[in-house]
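Re: beginner question about structure tokens

> Can someone show what the tokenized structure looks like for a real chain? I only ever see the sequence side.

Sure, here's an example I had lying around. Input first:
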Amino acid sequence: MATARKLPSGSWRVLAYVGVVDGKREYKSFTAPTKKEAEYQATLYAVKKRHSSSKIKVEDAIDRYINSKSSVLSPKTIREYKGMQNRYFQSISNARIDQLTDELVQSEINSLSASVSSKTVRNAYALFRSSVKMFDRDFNPIISLPQKSTKKVIIPKDKEVQTLLANASGALYTAILLCAALGLRRSEVCALNWEDISGDQLNIDKAMVLNADGKWIIKKTKTGAGTRVLTMPNSVVQHLSTLSKEKRIVPIKPDSVTSEYIELRKKFGIKTKLHSLRHHYASTLLEIGVPDLYAIERTGHATTHILKAVYQHIKDEKEAAVDASIISKMNELYK
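And the corresponding structure tokens:
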């Protein structure tokens, strides 16, 4: 319960939590002659509000939670939230919040864990829990989530990237070059226009993403880390100078880039995804000794999480080479 504070007038005031409105926390003020009376009014309000809110269905709670975040979260995140709302926790979507039990929630998590990844389960539960807590702050079920799984980062080899570039053309060639030589995301590549170039400097401050209605839009980068200015290699500057200046630098949508890339890589038995070209770029930075701080600035990451995964890949490759040299020497000495 919130604690009342004495005002200069001699009265006591306490703030009772109302909920999230337009992405912001809202509070209701209660003032009374005594501390005890102010806190009593706030407590009574909270009890009545909780009783009323607990009658809301889970599906309505999630819907209202998503709507309350629509002005502060990216269109991509809102679209992902709505996708999770439509796919997960369906068996309890019509249940009222006051009907939820630990057993009921755990059963839903168990069922979900049997069909999707642990990351998806955790993301879906995070949305579910935040939505319910917006209407019942005491909601805190004791449940177990699946263990986080470590996904191995697959990095294209230099020859694979060279093969892709040697056989790509048009917008796809430009997209692959920008992803591999500058570490850009697919969404960033497709949002670039000619005003983003100044000499050999490339300004990345926007992305092309799907909104909640399934339409491609251009928006500002999701985080401050995503906004950056990169110095382009001569090969990139030279290539861009040959392109028409009438449209966006890569005048196709992100899904078209991906589908064309998949078609190309399959021809040469290359298994890595388009996004893996960013990992290739990051691994190149690490191999030449670029410090983590500068590496994450150039890749637009907010943390070193992905760099650690890339480090492990490089370490594994070096260990394999060391093992091979040891075995070779032992075979030579002890025939």
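Each token stands for a local structural state, so reading them left to right follows the chain. The longest helix spans residues 305-333.
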